[in-house]
Write a structure and sequence with these properties.
Layout lengths: L2 H7 L12 H6 L9 H8 L5 H14 L8 H14 L2 H9 L4 H18 L3 H13 L18 H14 L3 H21 L5 H21 L3
Helix pairs in contact: 1-7, 3-5, 4-7, 5-6, 6-7, 7-9, 7-10, 7-11, 8-10, 9-10, 10-11
C-alpha cells in the first residue's frame, strides 16, 4: 500500500466522525462480534504461528467496518492489536501483508476513512458539484449518491462500501471503490479553481485506485 494514504490516515481510522459507520450501527448486533481473547493475547506476546496470524488478520478485517458497534471488550481487544502493532497506520500495513480479504479490506478502509475526512470540505464539495453538473455519473454510483451534492456525498460512498463489506461482498465493494476513486480524481482534475485540499484528495484517489485494483485482482 502507498505510504501517502497511510500517512494521511493516521488518527482517523478508529475515531471517525459521527455518522461515518452507519452500516455498523444499523445492521449489527454488537455482542455477536469480537476477537478471540486467547488469539489476541498470543499475538501480542509473539507466540501466534503464521497460519493463526493469517486467521487473526481475517478476523480483524471483518471487524474494521463494524468497530462502532463492538462492545467495550471487543473494542479493547481490537485496540490491543492496534497498540501492539504501533498504531492505526501500522494496523493497515499489517493487514496489507496478509493476502486476500485482509489486504483488500485494509485498502478499502483506507479509502472510506479518506472520503469521510474530506467529505465536508467546501472546495471538495464544489468540485464534485461542478463535475456532476457537467457529466453523468458512472453507472456504479447511480443509486448510491444522494440527489444533492453536499457534505453527505462522499460519506454516502463510504457507507455503501462498508455495507458491502459487512454483507461479505468485498469485490462488489472494490468495484464501487474503483469507480468512486476515478470519479473523485476526475472532479479534482477538472475543478475550476482547485484548492490545496482538492489537489491533495485527487492525489490520494490516484494512489488508492492503484492499491485497490492490485489487491482486488488477487482475492
Amino acid at each position: 500500500m502507498h505510504d501517502k494514504p497511510l500517512s494521511e490516515l493516521a488518527g482517523h481510522l478508529l475515531n471517525r466522525r459521527a455518522g461515518a459507520s452507519r452500516p455498523a450501527r444499523h445492521h449489527v448486533a454488537p455482542d455477536r462480534f469480537g476477537l478471540d481473547e486467547e488469539k489476541v493475547l498470543r499475538f501480542t506476546d509473539g507466540t501466534l504461528d503464521a497460519a493463526e496470524e493469517q486467521r487473526l488478520a481475517e478476523e480483524v478485517a471483518e471487524l474494521l467496518p463494524l468497530n462502532w458497534s463492538l462492545t467495550y471488550r471487543g473494542k479493547e481487544r481490537l485496540h490491543a492489536v492496534v497498540e501492539h502493532l504501533g498504531g492505526e497506520s501500522e494496523l493497515l500495513r499489517w493487514l496489507d501483508r496478509h493476502p486476500g480479504p485482509p489486504r483488500l479490506t485494509a485498502r478499502l478502509v483506507a479509502l472510506t476513512s479518506t472520503l469521510d475526512r474530506y467529505s465536508e470540505d467546501a472546495d471538495v464539495v464544489e468540485a464534485l458539484r461542478s463535475l456532476r453538473a457537467e457529466s453523468p455519473l458512472p453507472a456504479e454510483l447511480e443509486g448510491v449518491l444522494p440527489p444533492d451534492t453536499d457534505a453527505e456525498t462522499l460519506s454516502a460512498v463510504s457507507y455503501r462500501i462498508e455495507e458491502l463489506l459487512f454483507e461479505r461482498h468485498p469485490q462488489g465493494a472494490a468495484r464501487l471503490a474503483l469507480a468512486a476513486t476515478d470519479w473523485v480524481r476526475d472532479a479534482a482534475r477538472r475543478a475550476p479553481s482547485a484548492s490545496a485540499q482538492v489537489g491533495e484528495l485527487g492525489d490520494l484517489m490516484a494512489h488508492l485506485h492503484q492499491d485497490i485494483s492490485e489487491a482486488d485482482a488477487k482475492v
